[in-house]
Specification:
The chain is of the alpha+beta class. The chain has 21 helices and 23 strands.
């Protein structure tokens, strides 16, 4: 026997200095017809899922045991299975790293403090690297949830369930049975997004999320668990509530756990059902908009976020219980590192006893789908953040958040790879040819991605204009009494607006009377001329006076008719540029603001020469795209342009650049979508389309300028952000 063998024997026969913590709470649960155990650390409130074998190892360490004794006890308990001393030592180390074991040797205080310091430091770095999911603070919600449960336990009764089913059935009958009328009554997105409704939307989101989280907490208490924590986190820069109901894993029944996971979605479903009934039976107004906002928040939040099993929200935990795989995401994502270690290190890893072969195959597809979906979600979030930040010149902030988020994603695997490489024993087992092949494949993929040709697009805000239009001016001054709203389609001769001028109408009435008097005098003189020579002499003068009075009457009638403004052609009404009070003459207050076509300006005085509206061709459009001065050299005539209107973002318009303004212009618009600075106008002719857009519609434009590689695009953007000379 060699010295190493003697040392190995003495080490496995030596009693371990580690013991199972006596304060650990335990509960047995069933997963896939197997008995598993859930351990709860009362200090950190962490939950640990152990298989029967892992729990046996933990339970055996209540007393003084050596590795050899553990091996014998394990093989006796789970005969005919065998286990090596190395596998046992690895299991003991894992239990110790999870904090389930404690050392009975002296001098462990400093070691525990150092481990706690390292853990806090790692948690702090991880929190800073997770800017898209950052916890702001929390409270101990035990007393609050217990009090709510005492007052609300009646909602889990059968009569309440029957009432809820009736309400949901009624809401479905409205939404499905009268779908056509429901769609007809729905307002447009532009109407719902008006600034006056922003507080309504914020209040709806806050109310729904508070009810959602407390539904989880109270239901967890009802099935026998406890909610220890409720707090606020920033999720994609949006404040959200969260509650910790991980204690529900100690509940043996999976259907009770599913009830806790689905409680929030059920609460939102009930809110949506009540809101859609109230919306259906109310008239348009503030209450009607509040009800509709609740319906939208509940349905969209449930379908896109909470019910999605690819994100770690309600749908994920429901799926985890349905397939009976605890820590579904962790086990799924752990399959790839384990396979990589087997391939690189030739490790003989033990199969997860909680997973069947069928579940293991399913988890591979789940891990791939979750990774792809999470990548798409992150890309979408940063695209939205960039679209929001670009008008305010905050792209650098978004890029910084993106870099930190990417570092947070790569931190854990890079750290694990570094620790593995630092371990001499692990480094010795690395299959270097396979490692070289893996690095070659990774570098080749990165190089292919950086040099893959992509289309570089120039983006900018745009506005749709008509190819031809006819202005309508106020010929005479008057009080505005009628005006069609902007966007109305009119035919030639239709009344667009009507003015009233009391002086003109009074003059017309007086002239009408004067004409009638002169006509009556002419008739009298014509009758009297046969027997009165004096009347015959006055008749020519009376005829001339009547003719003059009629001519003046016609002129006054023409002036009054000029107060009625008519469409000079077929088309659609376009409002003129807005007029503000500071645009009026010095020392004179403006009689109206905005545009004359706005309802609020009815009764205002309109001066002669004022542009009332334009009548434009509603079938042939052009677009004016605002190009940043740094991108104007990449835009040329003949390039393809895609436009997405704000009023109908699901429609895509296409066109061609026909002219590019090379002279920069200061942006004078107050619209936040047009940021201050320099821009060039590109004129785009649109092709035929069927999108429901109007003249003046704003859109986002993308001009396909040239084909570049991803590396050149990154270099250009970095040079622009950091002001590099190359």
């Amino acid at each position: 026997m060699t010295v190493d063998q003697a040392y190995q024997r003495s080490s496995i026969d030596r009693p371990l200095v580690l013991r199972a913590r006596a304060d650990i709470q335990r509960a047995s649960v069933q997963f896939a017809s197997q008995t598993n155990y859930v351990l709860k650390d009362p200090l950190t409130l962490e939950m640990f899922h152990l298989s029967a074998e892992e729990f046996f190892l933990f339970d055996s360490l209540k007393a003084s045991m050596s590795i050899k004794q553990l091996q014998r006890a394990f093989e006796s308990r789970f005969a005919p299975r065998k286990i090596t001393s190395e596998q046992l030592q690895q299991g003991v180390n894992q239990l110790y790293s999870q904090g389930l074991l404690q050392s009975v040797a002296s001098g462990q205080g400093s070691e525990l403090l150092e481990r706690d310091r390292r853990q806090r430091s790692a948690d702090r770095w991880q929190s800073w690297l997770k800017l898209l999911s950052f916890r702001l603070g929390s409270i101990d919600a035990t007393r609050l949830v217990d009090g709510l449960h005492r007052r609300l336990r009646w909602i889990y009764s059968l009569p309440v369930l029957v009432c809820v089913m009736i309400v949901i059935a009624r809401a479905l009958s409205i939404a499905i049975g009268q779908a056509d009328e429901v769609v007809a009554r729905l307002p447009t997105l532009a109407e719902l997004a008006q600034p006056r409704y922003w507080l309504v939307w914020l209040a709806s989101v806050a109310l729904v999320k508070i009810v959602h989280e407390f539904a989880h907490a109270v239901t967890c208490k009802h099935v026998g668990g406890r909610c220890h924590e409720i707090g606020v986190l920033l999720l994609a820069m949006i404040p959200c509530l969260y509650c910790d109901v991980s204690d529900v894993w100690r509940v043996p029944s999976k259907w009770r756990r599913i009830a806790v996971s689905s409680a929030g979605m059920i609460a939102e479903l009930v809110i949506a059902a009540v809101a859609i009934i109230a919306w259906w039976h109310t008239q348009p107004g503030l209450l009607n908009v509040c009800c509709l906002s609740l319906v939208v928040v509940c349905t969209v939040g449930t379908l896109l976020v909470n019910a999605n099993p690819l994100l770690r929200y309600d749908g994920y935990y429901i799926l985890s219980d349905l397939v009976e795989v605890p820590n579904l995401s962790g086990r799924a994502q752990g399959l790839f590192p384990a396979a990589l270690r087997r391939w690189l290190l030739a490790e003989q890893t033990t199969a997860d006893p909680m997973l069947t072969e069928r579940q293991r195959r399913g988890l591979v597809f789940y891990a791939l789908a979750a990774r792809v979906y999470l990548t798409l979600v992150l890309i979408s979030i940063f695209a939205l953040l960039l679209a929001w930040a670009r008008p305010y010149r905050l792209e650098n902030l978004v890029y910084t958040i993106g870099v930190i988020t990417l570092a947070g994603i790569l931190f854990a695997p890079v750290r694990a790879a570094w620790q593995m490489w630092r371990n001499p024993a692990t480094r010795y087992r690395v299959r270097r040819p396979r490692l070289a092949a893996a690095l070659t494949v990774v570098l080749a993929m990165v190089a292919a991605g950086l040099w893959w040709p992509v289309t570089y697009a120039v983006r900018g805000p745009a506005v749709l204009v008509a190819r031809s239009s006819s202005p309508v001016y106020a010929v005479a001054s008057g009080e505005l009494t009628f005006a069609l709203p902007a966007g109305t389609r009119v035919s030639r001769g239709d009344v667009i607006a009507r003015l009233e001028n009391y002086d003109a109408e009074l003059a017309l009435t007086r002239q009408q009377g004067a004409y009638e008097v002169s006509l009556l005098r002419q008739q009298q003189l014509s009758t009297m001329r046969t027997w009165n020579e004096h009347a015959a002499e006055q008749l020519p003068t009376a005829v001339a006076e009547s003719r003059d009075a009629l001519e003046q009457l016609g002129q006054l009638q023409g002036k009054v008719e000029e107060l009625t403004l008519r469409a000079p052609r077929d088309g659609v009404l376009i409002a003129p540029p807005d007029v503000s009070r500071d645009q009026s003459a010095e020392g004179v207050l403006s009689n109206w603001t905005g545009t004359p076509l706005q309802t609020r300006n009815l009764g205002s005085w309109v001066e002669a020469g004022t542009l009332i509206a334009q009548v434009a061709d509603h079938e042939k459009f052009e677009a004016l795209v605002m190009i940043d001065q740094a991108d104007v050299e990449d835009v040329r005539t003949g390039q393809i342009v895609q436009l997405r209107p704000e009023s109908s973002p699901w429609h895509l318009l296409e066109g061609e650049v026909i002219q590019v303004g090379r002279r920069s212009t200061n942006r004078l618009s107050d619209d936040v979508a047009i940021d201050p600075g320099k821009y060039h106008l590109a004129q785009v002719r649109l092709t035929a389309h069927d999108a429901p857009v109007l003249v003046g519609t704003r859109a986002s434009a993308k001009i396909e300028s040239r084909r570049l590689t991803l590396s050149s695009i990154v270099q250009t953007e970095l040079g622009r952000l950091l002001k590099l000379p190359w």
